[in-house]
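Write out the 3D structure for:
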Amino acid sequence: MNAVKRSYLKELVAASYRLAMELSNKEEDDLSIEEQKFLNTVNDCAEWDISAESVDGIGREVSVFTNRGLVGVYEYHEIFGERDLVAQGTVIKLDDKSYVVLNVTLRSDKSIKLEVKSI
């Protein structure tokens, strides 16, 4: 996902939360079916920790290499899983194979390259 699409998605998520806040002031009986569905969707987003800030990671990719070549290009969620941190020594699982991270390279274009070894 490119930066323009990510920016629009962030604005859409932020606007949804603002509108949901306004709708939450209405009595439940006064809400239309569409408004109720909208509030349910926003509540689901909140439960999944989806916010304008969390959108930044969507569509961002990490290139993964071994000493033999490219393993693949993966989105953040595929690399991080339930983790908050990936660093040298972290074991990651990609395509049913386990790898240990040997090196992490960050570039000014915001690309990330992981050098890994199969274990």
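The mean pLDDT is 87.
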